[in-house]
Amino acid sequence: MSIANKVAIVTGASQGIGAGLVKAFRDRGYRVIANSRSIKPSNDPDILTVAGDVADRAVAERIVREGLAKFGRIDTLVNNAGIFMLKPFTAFTAEDYAAQIGVNLTGFFNITQAAVAEMEKQGSGHVVTISTSLVDHPIDGVPSVLTSLTKGGLNAATKSLAIEYAKRGIRANAVSPGIIKTPMHAPEKHAALAGLAPVRRIGEVDDVVQAVLYLESAGFVTGEILHVDGGSSAGH
Questions:
Q1: Engineered SS bond to 46: which of 31, 149, 174, 193, CB 3.0-4.6 Å?
Q2: DSSP secondary structure string, the chain?
Q3: Which Gene3D superfamilies does its entry note (predicted)?
Q4: Domain CATH code at residue 173
């Protein structure tokens, strides 16, 4: 199939990694369905924006339904929407827990189930989920139990999806970033954060984008958790 006919869904698409992914897919000729809670309409006729929280089942189903109505197919889903909270474990509230479970896990379940159902009809597709290297390499001073609880579940789900759907032409992979220069991290903290990675810098949005694009083009790769963390997952 021509890339010009391919369609990608990107969640959490209004800023940071998500916005970078939307641009990268469009630069490759993909048509894009871009979602976030506050995303604005696009002037690009090949970008469909759908506002709402993927933790809401109705929103996830609307993303896929409206995408199919406009573009006719779903080839790639990038599960980028997520919540990251830095708190001591005992400081997390029930509301914090519900929020992270809602977006990180329920959101993944809602949109992935709807998208994969369409990919099955086509006999092809690719799901990429953005995780974090903190899952398998926690860092002292970066308390992130709820993030690891949820993103670790996504890593496991990625491998299960890859095996379940391998014979049906659908691949599933994850990108596991370290600390990336996004609005999540204040500029005055960049220098200190850079010291946490063996390469002594924090990642750029494009580092993650290029990893997703690699997985998108790597047809023999499925079930992979690709670390983009400046060596953090290898050790210190």
A1: 31
A2: --GGG-EEEEES-SSHHHHHHHHHHHHTT-EEEEEETTPPP-S-TTEEEEES-TTSHHHHHHHHHHHHHHHS---EEEE---------GGG--HHHHHHHIIIIIIIHHHHHHHHHHHHHHHT-EEEEEE--GGGTS--TT---HHHHHHHHHHHHHHHHHHHHHGGGTEEEEEEEE-SB-STTS-GGGHHHHHTTSTTSSPBPHHHHHHHHHHHHH-TT--S-EEEESTTGGG--
A3: NAD(P)-binding Rossmann-like Domain (3.40.50.720)
A4: 3.40.50.720
Output the pLDDT for position 23.
Answer: 97
Does 70 reside within a domain? Answer: yes
Residue 81 covered by a domain: yes
Whether 236 is in a domain gets the answer: no
The 10s digit of each residue's pLDDT in 90-131 is 999 999 999 999 999 999 999 999 999 999 999 999 999 999
Query: Does some domain include residue 59?
Result: yes
Q: How many domains does the chain have?
A: 1
11: confidence class by pLDDT, cuts 50, 70, 90: very high
Distance CA 159, CA 13 (A): 24
